[in-house]
Amino acid sequence: MRYGMSLRSSTRELSGYLDMIQRYEEYGLDSAWCAQLFGLDALTLFALAGATTSRIRMGTAVIPTYSRHPLVLASHALTTQAATGNRLLLGIGSSHEALVKGVLGADYSRPAAYLREYLTVLPGLLRGERLEYDGERLHVDSTSRFGRAGGLGSEAPPVYVGTMFPISLRITGQLADGLVTWLCGPQTFTDVVLPNLHDAATEAGRDRPRVVASIPMALCAAADVDGQRDQVDRQLETFVSLPVYQQVLEREGASGPSGLAAIGDEETIAARIAEFADAGVDEISGVCFGDDATLHRTAEFLGRLAR
To answer: Does residue 163 surpass a pLDDT of 90?
Structure first.
């Protein structure tokens, strides 16, 4: 099992993010993960963090595919790879209709089909290949002198997909290097995620992609558990109203998002992590909704587990 921690999204200064990644490395964590919307640019942040860290891997969870053409993303990712000494984990995903259609004004019809097209071309572009692809939704031509990504001596980063939908899980099993989930419980991994991922990879004649589970997490005293749970439930109340998360809550027998979390003392969190390990998860990424002290206490504990 590997252990990572998400960066606190409420950080307001760029230096605060860079300090956080450096602290995560000092704690011994295997990875630092950063969401990507329209504030901080995660790939640029990680490129800067490459100068102040030497070991920790850095992952995007996730970059919406609709916001960047795959050739543009490949160029940006390979630059970050060069700046970090090849420590990038490139997480992409279809996101949700509210963002893609509501914010970007893009066509969100058949997102799984678009994801398949995107994953058909992205790995080759990351390897610096010249290719031509004319799909239903996506056109790429890197065969001219304008089109090739790379040239900085960096390796192609592994591509992770953020999804929990069965069709997209199968596409991930066939074409991606890893899967990163958010608010997914052990029973859902056992019943839905791992079977779809494994079967699709087997049919494609390849190894099952690595699986990263991002879950709310807080190391705290018994007296603070209820408060931490209330905070998770309040902050994620709107988020879990989406049908896919309602299905997860029902499958896990959880009344709210805190039922999918790991909150409590060291023994409680370790036992909860063991449930994910038993389900077949390869890496845990903690997402802390508590204060800074809780965040760093949790990250330090996960770093001890990693070591």
So the answer is: yes
pLDDT at residue 20 above 90?
yes
Q: Is residue 42 a contact partner of residue 71, using CB atoms and an 8 Å limit?
A: no
Half-sphere exposure of 76 (CA within 13 A, CB side): 16
Q: What are phi and psi of 136, to 5 degrees?
A: -70, -40
Tell me the pLDDT of the chain averaged across its residues: 94
Residue 140 has pLDDT above 80, yes or no: yes
Where does 123-209 show beta strands of DSSP type E?
A: 132-134, 139-141, 159-162, 178-182
The domain containing residue 113 runs over which residues?
Answer: 2-306
When divided into structural domains, the chain yields a total of: 1
- Between the alpha carbon of residue 272 and those of residues 176, 262, 283, the distances in Å are 27, 6, 13
Rounded to a whole number, what is the distance in angstroms from the first to the last CA of the chain? 11
**pLDDT grade for 242, boundaries at 50, 70 and 90:** confident
Q: Among residues 258, 255, 240, 251, which one has the least CA distance to residue 187?
A: 251
Spatial distance between the Cα atoms of 4 and 21, rounded to a whole number of angstroms: 11
pLDDT band at 105 (very low <50, low <70, confident <90, very high): confident
Q: Which residues pair with 57 in a beta bridge?
A: 31
CA-CA distance, 298 to 220, in Å (whole number)? 8
CATH number at residue 302: 3.20.20.30
Whose tokens are 């160029």? That residue is 75
Share of the chain above pLDDT 90, in %: 86
Residue (of 282, 247, 242, 259) closest to 95 by Cα position: 242
User: Which residues, 6 or more positions from 74, have their beta carbon under 8 angstroms from its beta carbon?
Assistant: 122, 125, 126, 149, 150
Asked if the model's pLDDT at residue 39 lies above 90, the reply is: no
CA-CA distance, 195 to 198, in Å (whole number)?
Answer: 5
Please state the pTM of the whole predicted model.
0.96
